Amino acid sequence: MSVCKSRPVEGLFCALVLLGLFGCRPEQSVPPSRPLAVAVLTVTPADITLTAISPALIEGVREVEVRARVTGILQTVNYAEGVPVKAGDLLFRIDPAPYAAAHALVLAQLAQETARAQQAAAEAVRQAELFRQKAASRKEADDAQALAAAAQGARDAAVAKASLAKLDLDYCEVRSPIDGVAGRRLRTEGALVNPAGPDGLLTTIVRADEIWARFGLAEDDFRSLFAGGAATALGAEVALFRPDGSVQPLRGRVDFASTQVDERLGTVQVRARFANADGALLAGQFVRVRVTGGQAKGAFLVPQVALIQTPAGRSVFVVGAGGRAESRPVTLGDTQGADIVILTGLRPGDQVILDQLQKLRPGTPVVLAPAKK
Questions:
Q1: Rounded mean pLDDT of 119-128?
Q2: Around 367, how many Cα atoms within 13 Å sit in the side-chain half-sphere?
Q3: Of 207, 209, 243, 330, which is most buried by a Cβ count within 10 Å?
């Protein structure tokens, strides 16, 4: 039997071959992780003015509903929609014929009652003189005086009825109660209008030279801006963004702030007053406003891109001891353009990491990236 074909020799040979193959390979090790190059911002504390942006609804400072005050057929419409009108300008005319007749009737009744009152007064004077001369009894004198008083009362009632009839006749001419811009007409000629029903509303007049912006601030935002409550909000500056995104040149001022939170929305209702001499802002428009509040003492302003979301809330990465990334939970203030106010969580001189956030973990070695030229 050949030695090479024996199984013990064959096994020993294979073992020697394997030992030579693996024993002669150089030892390999896992290279250490290389530091991650990051851009940073070194923060310094400052007193930062707090602002908040909110959607708002434009309203006229004075918006008056023009309503019919008597029932009748609308005879004429005497204004153009959307044009300025003055207080006292004629807007509508309701058919005055029935009210003119009613006024004439009560004037006739007034004349009758006036004549009766004069006759009764004269009779009371005559009976009083006869009683003085002992030519009439006291009862006759007293009865004449009572009839004169009753006749005078009837005359006064007729005067009141005449005044009411005159008012109804005057109300047939519907005039503008204020200066402003007339809205669209809600009733046309020939329509029956009734002040007691929904068809009594004829149009609206809106004063356009001043407007209100009504908006709501979240409870936390309101408390952050105005730590002293609603009283400290009065007079706060408000900037208004027009629908095209531009900023209204004139600033408004808060003239009302609610003292309670709307439990349905969780907001505090606020109102600001703006000049609108050019009439560019229209009642019913939706715009955005920026409210300026108090100052955050010793706060930090960092780019919003530095924020990360964690299960515990918002945080940022800073360069910690030994050049390793360290996560810092932060308390946020309001946004200011691309930046955000950090109220707590940072210290002066902290280097906040601005990029490579998806690759960072607490303890990751980092190195400052060279500045871009």
A1: 94
A2: 7
A3: 330
The answer to whether the beta carbons of residues 76 and 189 sit under 8 Å apart is: yes
Distance of CA 161 to the CA centre of its chain: 47
* Structure confidence by residue, pLDDT tens digits, 56-84: 999 888 889 999 999 999 999 999 998 88
Residue 351's closest CA among 309, 310, 300, 279? 300
Task: Count other Cβ atoms within 10 Å, centred on residue 82.
Answer: 9
- Element spanning 267, H or E: strand 267-275
The Cα 72–Cα 93 span in angstroms is 10
Distance CA 59, CA 61 (A): 6
Q: Are the beta carbons of 78 and 231 closer than 8 angstroms?
A: no
Phi, psi dihedral angles at 144 (to 5 degrees): -65, -40
The residue out of 173, 205, 237 marking a domain boundary is 205
**194, 197, 198, 201: CA torsion to nearest 10:** 40
Is pTM, for the whole model, over 0.90?
no
Q: Which tokens go with 321? A: 């001891």
Which residue shows structure tokens 């209100």?
212
Please count the CA atoms within 13 angstroms of the CA of 353 that sit on its side-chain side: 30
Query: Would you report the helix, strand and coil content of the chain in percent, each value rounded to 5?
Result: 30, 35, 35
Q: Which residues pair with 90 in a beta bridge?
A: 175
| Position 262, amino acid | D
Domain that holds residue 306: 37-48+297-368
- Both 128 and 225 in one domain: the answer is no
